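seq:
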Amino acid sequence: MKIAIITDQHFGARKNSKLFHDYFLEFYDKIFFPKLEELGITCVIDMGDTFDNRTGINFSALSWAKSNYYDRLQKMGVTVWTLVGNHTAYYKNTNSINAVDLLLREYDNVRVISEYTEVCIDGLGISFIPWINSENEDVTYSSIKKSKSTVAMGHLELKGFAANKQCIMDHGADKSIYKNFTKVFSGHYHTRSVQDNVFYLGNPYEIYWNDVDDVRGFHIFDTDTLETTPINNPYKIFHKVYYEDTPYQLFDTSPYEDKIVKVIVKKKSDPKNFERFVDKFYTSNVSDLKIVENFDFNGWYSGNSDQELVESENTLSILHRYIDDSDTTIDKSKIKDLIGEVYKEACEVVD
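struct:
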């Protein structure tokens, strides 16, 4: 049996941005639902963070999620197992009050997992592991030790894995806790990565600049072979364009309509030609355009490495480097978490 696994959909992201919801819908309309219909999928496993804001829901975002996702799955007769993630649990120390349980009760095909649960799907034993917190930590880890399930699927925070392309998590639980499972699939981190038997599957689409040029999508899981097949999302909302005295007459800006664009200047000999180059983006109705010209940030950019360009333009990476290089006695991982939350809120304020 083939089932679909998707995670970290973050409905209502970026302050319920219509721009982002339209971008999300392109994925669901052209990639997700057509693949479910093609393969005759009748089971979807959502591994957490279905909604973005753990303390509230915008009515338009909820209506969008129901009309464009849940209503369609119900009509197709698809069973949805949905785990509580840290973004859908109202409190940080318990999963008892959560968005997916409160908002989706009208759907008899949606089964909410708020505590450790073992199920059997097509003869395969699966342990569902929602967000682990102070209330459920002991019973969850005790259940994991006793579990006879072949596969675990959860919303896990494990150290040593990539949270995004620039950041490796230096805190969290150890992956050895899950060594008795043949395979472990998890949401929470938005970029794909694998170590031993643990697979972070990544979220379906870009949400922040950290996601640019990172492959996104969902997965088809075979309960007989335990193999996963990635179904990639070809659609992007963030675009980096490198300007190096690029002839504006020959550059096609039409693909950037309703996109968020960052023009990175590597060489600009003629300012007027550059202005015309930029003007073409505005006439193509880009959603947002930023110009990055100065990479000499504490001598990090030497002018000959694309990786240095990426790192220099990434605000969160700069902040993390600054924290790593500081001689503070405070737990640096906690500072990074706090900075990350502030940075995310700042990004939403300017939408």
